[in-house]
Amino acid sequence: MKGSMKVKYKMLCDSDVSIEITLSELLRNEKVAKVIKSEFAKGLRNITISSLENIKMEISTQKEIFEFKADKKDFADLIELAEEDAKEHKRIKKGCAGVEIVDFSTN
Fold first, then answer.
1. b/e sequence 72-94, b meaning 16+ C-beta within 10 Å
2. CA gap 14, 96 in Å, rounded
3. Torsional sign, CA 57, 99, 87, 103
4. Which alpha helices (H) appear in the chain, and where do they start and end?
């Protein structure tokens, strides 16, 4: 295999948050409902908030995406190569030692 790949990854930290919640759960929260009502229905009374579908939402830590280039023949070693790139650029810190491959594309 000739050619290269553009690999995108992010650092994983111990303090990262990743929670999945449904829209109906979010709307049942009194504080959220109060903010929505005060923003979109100011001065109105007897307002209810509901959702038609049970849509899932993700609340997660926003991460910076890093990228590097690798040969196509190194596909099986992408995680190791991402870890090496993170070490080379001093992205590995206390509590942030893992990497997650986000995307890759071939050229």
1. eeeeeebeebbbebbeeeebeee
2. 6
3. negative
4. 23-28, 30-40, 78-88
Count of other CB atoms within 10 angstroms of residue 5: 19
What are the structure tokens assigned to 68, written together? Answer: 């590097």
Give residue for tokens 């290269």. Answer: 4
pLDDT tens column, 7-21: 999 999 999 999 999
Burial of 107 (0-12, 13-18, 19+ CB in 10 A): exposed
Average pLDDT over residues 30-50: 91
Look-up of token digits 């910076």? 64
The overall pTM is greater than 0.85: no
